[in-house]
Amino acid sequence: MRNYLVVTFAYWVFTLTDGALRMLVLLHLHGLGYTPITLASIFLLYEFFGVTTNFTAGWVGARFGLKSTLWSGLSLQILATSVLAWQAASLTVPLVIAMQGLSGIAKDLTKMSAKSYVRLLVPRGKADEAAHSRRLLHWVAALTGSKNTLKGVGFFLGGYLLSNWGFQVSNLIMAGALLIALLVSCWKLPAALGKTAVIPRLRDVLRTDRRVFHLSWARLFLFGARDAWFAIGLPIFLVDQLDWSQAAVGAFLASWVIGYGLVQASAPRLLGMQRRADAGALIRWTLVLLLPILGLCTFLLVSPESTWIASGLVLGLAAFGFLFAGSSALHSFLILHLSEDENVSLRVGFYYMANAMGRFLGVLASGIAYQWGGGGSTGLLACLGVTLGFLLISSLGARALQSSIVSDRVPT
Hints:
Layout: H1 2-31, H2 36-64, H3 66-86, H4 93-121, H5 129-188, H6 210-230, H7 233-240, H8 246-265, H9 267-270, H10 279-288, H11 290-302, H12 309-337, H13 344-372, H14 376-408
Helix pairs in contact: 1-4, 1-5, 2-3, 2-4, 2-13, 3-4, 3-5, 4-13, 5-8, 5-12, 6-12, 6-13, 6-14, 7-14, 8-12, 10-12, 10-14, 11-12, 11-14, 13-14
């Protein structure tokens, strides 16, 4: 329990600074006159490095232990915030892109480490496997849900720090908080936890269990479906078509992330997942996500200029967030449930490599679909169309997972 609390503390501090840094960079560079295309390119690199990092992070964790990857993630974020503070008066696009790249690497090193630690730290005691699975589901949901809630809080924190302390001091404050988390985790956590007895090869990351492969496929398109309309299309639509201020859009999206995180943290109890957390449930949770998206599509087609469109979007996004939180919590449980103690970092690394690729594709698809759709209601409809397609592909991945579990005769 002590180790779990230390890991959670480090992950919480990192998540707060990650959300705050994203908002700091976005608002500060927007104030300096950077174009939306330039800002988008900066964050695309952040997502791209998540893909490459997860490819190697699982191997590094298995080779040297999870403490090394957690320490590396926190250290890189300290470096990124410190350099941004040092160069605050003379920021350039290449420098900001490089630091966002470092932050992207840091984010996925820290996330992979924290999630893998949970798999190893959940106590088994004398409980049977079903009881252990229920406990694992609760611990994962609590960690992941709190992370998403705090990321939304980080958005608010970034705006507050920038308004009251400026860009340079804000980055120094975050570097100091990260340093405290680094020292605590280095002091309290055991060094070799997660290290495998047999030294893995880097290519072993790709030689994953087919169940993990199918789950990763489903995860890739699930998160691609979310970002295909949430990342670019929705914020631009709110600003350009509904005349929302940038502050209002930021607060709205931050509130959604916080609410999504709260639902995810309480998903096992609130959504009854502890009774049946398996591949069949994952198929149902993925398909039911189609309903709010279809409802939004119908609403935009029938009344594209309605004065009620803002209310419709808020309700649709709330319904989507509630269901998406449940699906995501089930995903996070299944990847740990399907991993063994000796290969957990390799499996989680591969899985979150797919997660990062999904975010990358979703952000890219959101911008392309909105622009090719002509912007406005038709542009947002194009984004929602991509989301529908991605959700259907994700459900096929969940179906393949169910088939592979049955054929391998592994209890779900």
